[in-house]
Specification:
Number of helices of chain B: 4
Largest interface: A-B, 19 and 19 residues
Keywords (chain B): ATP synthesis, Cell membrane, CF(0), Hydrogen ion transport, Ion transport, Lipid-binding, Membrane, Transmembrane, Transmembrane helix, Transport
Helix content of chain B: over 70%
Oligomer: heterodimer
Distance between the termini of chain A: 50 Å
Protein name (chain B): ATP synthase subunit c
Order of helices and strands of chain A: HHHHHHH
GO molecular function (chain B): lipid binding; proton-transporting ATP synthase activity, rotational mechanism
Structural class of chain A: mainly alpha
Radius of gyration of chain A: 22 Å
Distance between the termini of chain B: 13 Å
Number of strands of chain B: 0
CATH topology of chain B: F1FO ATP Synthase
Number of domains of chain B: 1
CATH architecture of chain B: Up-down Bundle
Pfam family, one (chain B): ATP-synt_C
Membrane topology (chain B): Multi-pass membrane protein
Helix content of chain A: 55-70%
Structural class of chain B: mainly alpha
Shape of chain A: globular
Amino acid sequence: MATEEYSEGGSVFQFHPLDQFIVKPLFGDGPVSWYTPTNVTLWMAIALLAIVAVFVLGSRGRAIIPTRLQSVGELLYGFIYKMVEDVTGKDGVKYFPYIMSLFLFILFSNYLALIPMSYSPTSMIAVTVILGFGVFIAITILGFVKNGPAFLGLFWMSDAPAFLRPIIAIIEIISYFVRPVSLSIRLAGNIAAGHVVLKVFATFAAAALISPAAILGIIAIYGLEILVCGIQAYVFTILTCVYLKDALHPAH
Amino acid sequence: MEGDLAHIGAGIAAIGSGLAALGVGNVAGNYLAGALRNPSAAAGQTATLFIGLAFAEALGIFAFLVSLLLMFAV
């Protein structure tokens, strides 16, 4: 790690923009095992509790004229339901609960991470890889169960010229296996990059000369991050829907 | 001196983020050009727009990842 020697070289800035992603145990300084409560598990639990709070408390009244919390829940539900129905068709609606859970978990952990001093579980590649590979494995199994060997027709473009078909098949297979990697790295990379940029601007704010510009920069980047958090949750969900459509209707 | 070369490599990898910006701008600009010609078809294509943006952006994120790996993992 070369960072320590560089930061002590007489510079005013102490750059540690990646320290915010260190996984720490909540109690004591012991080693981190799979069962240790850490800041990651804490913020995942907070995200789950927030989801439960919005949906259980919000829908408890079942008012004809919805309260504010109820309309937030109804809007989210309706938005994802319509997306699943539009992209995958009527027979994809069965898998709506899984897609809704993915969307809510990603959305809430993205937005809760914008609270200062918090931790974003979705900025950890370990978390997003589990989400991405979960989608990939589920959809591959589903495709073979629903279509049998005909699922392999996804890779065989029957309307392409005959001599191009093997080449296209190889490209399609590669792009199929890159899907979970790009799903997970896109989410983790976007969230982590946003937090690093915020931290770098926060470091610039320590210098008196440029601190007004740096604080304005933080405000602007924060606004951008609010947008990015929503868009990344949306993109993950809609790509899951697109892959689900491929699994249900593999014929080109 | 090995660390210095890794930092230079990280800086070169960061060029990829700028190139991804070209891709994202291309997708959004073409969408806008199409949407202004036929505004009634624009609303139905926002999902496609976001998918295209996500694919273009993912490759820039890969470049960012390479530079992070060079700085902290190599």
